[in-house]
Amino acid sequence: MAYQGSPKFTHHQCDKIGVLVTNLGTPDAPTTSALRAYLRQFLSDPRVVEVPRFIWWLILNLIILRIRPRRSAAAYRTVWTERGSPLLYHTADQAAGIRAALERKYGDDVVVEFAMRYGNPSISKGLQSLFDQGARKLVVLPLYPHYSAATTGSTFDAIAHDFTQRRWLPEFRFINHYHDHPAYIKAVATSIQRHWDEHGKPQKLILSYHGVPLKYLLKGDPYHCECHKTSRLIAEHLGLEKDAYMTTFQSRFGREEWLQPYTDETLKHLPEQGVHSIHVVCPGFSSDCLETIEEIGEENREYFMEAGGKEYSYIPALNATPEHIDVLVQLIESNLQDWHLDHNEDQRHALASAMETEHEQRKGRSN
Ligand SMILES: C=CC1=C(C)c2cc3[nH]c(cc4nc(cc5[nH]c(cc1n2)c(C)c5CCC(=O)O)C(CCC(=O)O)=C4C)c(C)c3C=C
Ligand SMILES: [Fe+2]
Ligand SMILES: [Fe+2]
């Protein structure tokens, strides 16, 4: 087994802290073939679909990958922009915002990259870039406020898998979740309040989260509980009574039962219960993407209006707003604590040349 080394390392370089910001990933293009490649990688992940491998291989290859890519490509075309997929450019903008903020404070002692769990840019590419820039300590921030084995857990797997191929591992911190972090709660609540200042307050606020199969909750995944906690904290922040808000779960996939209540079914029935004006916010999505822009912004709006709803609006994700960058920088900084940053250039060079000499002498001896 040949482990990948760090050939670019020199003793003159200072140890840097690398920050890898990750997100789910998105297809390279809104085409059937790009969707097939993306969905194959995504849906082959045993963290995402917990069905016995051989049975799932048959279902995936004989049914899903023959039907879904074309349908999903058409959906992606409705949200695609000049900068590509919204998920990709929002994540790129978030990383740029974090990089600028950390650079102001730490100069080039902290380096920042972003990567995607599925598709491009890959996690291994992001890590390689950080190591090439001299990172010897690493903070990974998956942009998922809520922990689920299917998302955060799977991101950890990808990092760990990359590490199994490397010779020199960094010191490593992994941000597990931030669903109840006061700064995150405040940022989401403030964005809702701002939306209300502009558009007025609706009868009900719907907090819609991406669903997962019910069996994941029953097996002990904390995702469901964390989503409910986020909703409660946001409602408390906004001073909402219990009947003024509701937590729902969207983006169901396949036939088995997922977390309930389902967003689409809920919206189809709210008007008959006397609720005609709603705003929907998706606190689990750190960036707008297909599942918010198309599914919540378009599809679910139609369900609600067709059922007799009168007013509907989607409150955008935090994306790369300064308030969101602040939250993410706070999360990262609290994970840098006690990591020594050597700002003293002279001292660093003196130490490095002493080490270089020693290194050369040792090499000389062993020749
Ligand atoms: C098949 C099971 C799926 C599970 C479990 C799942 C969990 C999960 N997903 C997100 C966040 C996102 N998912 C997105 C798209 C998406 N999700 C699934 C399936 C599962 N997700 C599919 C098949 C797709 C692809 C789109 C489609 O074909 O409909 C996205 C958007 C990506 C984009 O490019 O815009 C996000 C974001 C979370 C947070 C989660 C569990 C906690
Ligand atoms: Fe998903
Ligand atoms: Fe729960």
TrEMBL record:
It holds the Pfam family Ferrochelatase. The keyword Iron applies. It catalyses: heme b + 2 H(+) = protoporphyrin IX + Fe(2+); Fe-coproporphyrin III + 2 H(+) = coproporphyrin III + Fe(2+). It is an enzyme of class 4 (lyase). Keywords: Cytoplasm, Heme biosynthesis, Iron, Lyase, Metal-binding, Porphyrin biosynthesis. It is found in: Cytoplasm. Its main location: cytoplasm. Signal peptide: none annotated. Pathway: Porphyrin-containing compound metabolism; protoheme biosynthesis; protoheme from protoporphyrin-IX: step 1/1. One of its GO terms (cellular component) is cytoplasm. InterPro entries: Ferrochelatase (IPR001015), Ferrochelatase_AS (IPR019772), Ferrochelatase_C (IPR033644), Ferrochelatase_N (IPR033659). This is Ferrochelatase.
